[in-house]
Amino acid sequence: MRYSLYSLIIFVVFIGVLYYIVTILSPWDEQAVNQAVDRFGLLTGSEFQEFVIEGIENGSVFYLLNIKNVIAIGVVLLVVIVSGFSALHLFIDKLFFRKFYENPSVFSSIRRGTILGLLVESLVLLRLNGSFETYIVAGCIVLTALIEVLFLTILDRRKNTEKLQGKIVPVTNKDLPKT
What is the rounded CA–CA span in Å between residue 33 and residue 48? Predict the structure, then answer.
């Protein structure tokens, strides 16, 4: 339970950091926004909002964003997603799947949280790029599931080879080749 508590503390701290970054740093590049407002004659907030929505639909909104600020927000958001998912995963793992004296699997919770966070951020980037189509989203979800299955397969093989190393495996007559 202490691992889930540590992860929960990290989650709460980075929620505060995310709130601070979002309120202090603007994702918009001020110079590019001012040029767009002057060039297209955007006078009200609703006109600018419609302009941004059109930019999202055709994928040109990246020209209005300050990439450094967006990356900072994205990294902190990734930490928030990973730590929040890890806290929940560790709590559920300890409560339902582990014995009282066993520790939950920290590595698998962080791995799955990272995969989930990268999936969420890739879907946000697809939305901003104007490529948020059903088949692309389904492909991203299938790709993340395949990555998880690949990790599980590799880790299962590694555990099996560690069990076999150092042990004498009995050989019977059935295992010997016939001559």
Answer: 9
